[in-house]
Each structure stands twice: as structure tokens, then as C-alpha cells.
Amino acid sequence: MTRRQRIWSVVVVVAVVAAAATAVLSRTPAVEAAPAGGSPACAQLLQRLPASLDGLGRVPQGAPGVAVWGGDRDVVLRCGAAVIGPTTKECLPIGPDEATSVDWVRDAQSDRAVRFLTYGRDPAVEVTVRFAGGDPTGAPSMLVDLAAPVGAVPQTRACV
């Protein structure tokens, strides 16, 4: 092997190792499926979800019952979450109109994200919306676009 061939061999090896290291280090951990994410109702829901949500493209996921929009996981939907019972947390009917609204409970909120759970639907659907600058006011608008597909999940109770 000539000196030039050895140099090119080293360059190729370094490039391959660098590419592999970058791929491993840049991978974000997968979104974990909810306990009942593999249910038939969740599989049907995922088929009905939009390809984009508020300008964010849907990012393919491998976990059952999981949908993600935006490269930074701006919106994460997990179908098959635990069904919640009566609660004192805020319950909001959200949809394009009263007939197609879905009852959502604001389950948790931080300075970067808010999490909603469907109320009175089985399987339950959890949606986490990340926001910038500590302003969660746009989060419910994401739920309006999800009302039709999530509304197909059978409703057993409603907010009071």
C-alpha cells in the first residue's frame, strides 16, 4: 500500500467514525408509548391525525400510539394514557365548534410546556405542547386541530 493509499484509508476511517459518533450523539431519546398505546383505537387515531399541525410537520415515530410534530418535539401526542376520573383540575371543551369539541384537562404546566389529557375518553389521549418564552396561550389552538381525530375516540363522560 502506498503512502497516498494509507492516508486516504485513514481519512475514510476517520470520516466513518465521525459520522457514526455524530449519529449516536445527535439521536434524541424516543418518545415512550403510553400503557395502552398499542390498542386498536390508538392505531385508528394515529391514521386520522394531520400531517401538519400549526405549521409543524409530523415526524415519524416508532412507538405505538405516539405522534410528534416539529423537529424539536414541539407537540407530542400519546394515545393510551391512563384514563382520569373526576378531577378539580381545569377542564376545557376545545374544538372548532361545540358539536365537535373534546374535553381536555390541563394536567401539568411548566415554564416550557403544558400537558393536556382527554377527559371522559377511553383510551385517554395525552398532548404535550412546548412553547417558547413562557407563553402557553397558543397551546389550546393545537387542540382545536386535533379535535376531529381525537373526537372519534368514544366519549363516556363530559366536563361539568
Furnish the topology, listing elements before pairings:
Elements: H1 3-26, H2 40-48, E1 52-53, E2 56-59, E3 66-69, E4 75-81, E5 91-94, E6 102-109, E7 113-118, E8 124-130, H3 139-151
Antiparallel strand pairs: 1-2, 2-3, 3-4, 4-8, 5-6, 6-7, 7-8
Observed structural traits:
single chain; 160 residues; alpha+beta; 3 helices; 29% helix; globular
Could you please describe the fold and organization of this structure?
This protein is α+β, with helices and mostly antiparallel strands and 160 residues long. It folds into 2 domains: 1-30; 40-151, no CATH class. It is 29% helix and 26% strand. It is built from 3 helices and 8 strands, in the order H-H-E-E-E-E-E-E-E-E-H. The chain has helices at residues 3-26, 40-48, 139-151; strands at 52-53, 56-59, 66-69, 75-81, 91-94, 102-109, 113-118, 124-130. Strands 1-2-3-4-8-7-6-5 form an 8-stranded antiparallel beta sheet. Strand 7 and strand 8 (124-130) form a beta hairpin. The radius of gyration is 21 Å and the shape is globular. The relative contact order is 0.16. The model is unreliable at 8-28 (pLDDT under 50).
